């Protein structure tokens, strides 16, 4: 219950909640609490989403058009200015999940590997199963 108390006192949360995407931010915060993140993880997740929303607005991107490709672009942009933490991508994936659950953005399109990727995966599987190679050796091959 410390997280709920933190959210009640958090200026960052209040600012985001009072913005144009407030209802989504509230659902996102609830998801963070359900996930069991600690105070710093909740703060970091909210901070990353705030940066993502600003980046999207500056680029003229509508919330309905964000997806995994947008997340990748944002993280590359963010990495030029500051350190990207390992949990930043997970936070943005949770954000996309909340938006998808709310019907704000389209469901993710399943990834279909190219014929070349299927060949490489089959060869990697052969090297792993039949030859007993470790991932670093497979990459070298």
Structure explained in plain terms:
By secondary structure, the chain is an all-alpha fold. Helix content is 70%, strand content 0%. Helix 3 (22-35) packs across helix 6 (86-101), helix 4 crosses helix 5 and helix 4 (39-58) packs across helix 6. The mean pLDDT is 91.
First-to-last CA distance: 51 Å
Radius of gyration, taken over Cα atoms and rounded to an integer in Å: 19 Å
Secondary structure: helix percent: 55-70%
Quaternary class: single chain
- The total of beta strands comes to 0
Report low-confidence residues grouped into runs of 5 or more.
Answer: none
Report the major sheet: none
The share of residues in extended strands comes to under 5%
What is the 3D shape? elongated
Backbone structural class: mainly alpha
Order of helices and strands: HHHHHHHH
Q: What is the arithmetic mean of pLDDT?
A: 91
**Number of H- or I-type helical stretches:** 8
List strands and helices in order, with pairings:
Elements: H1 2-9, H2 11-17, H3 22-35, H4 39-58, H5 68-79, H6 86-101, H7 115-129, H8 135-140
Helix pairs in contact: 3-4, 3-6, 4-5, 4-6, 5-6
Short account of what is shown:
This protein has about 140 residues and is mostly helical.
Can you tag this structure with a few keywords?
70% helix, 141 residues, elongated, mainly alpha, 8 helices
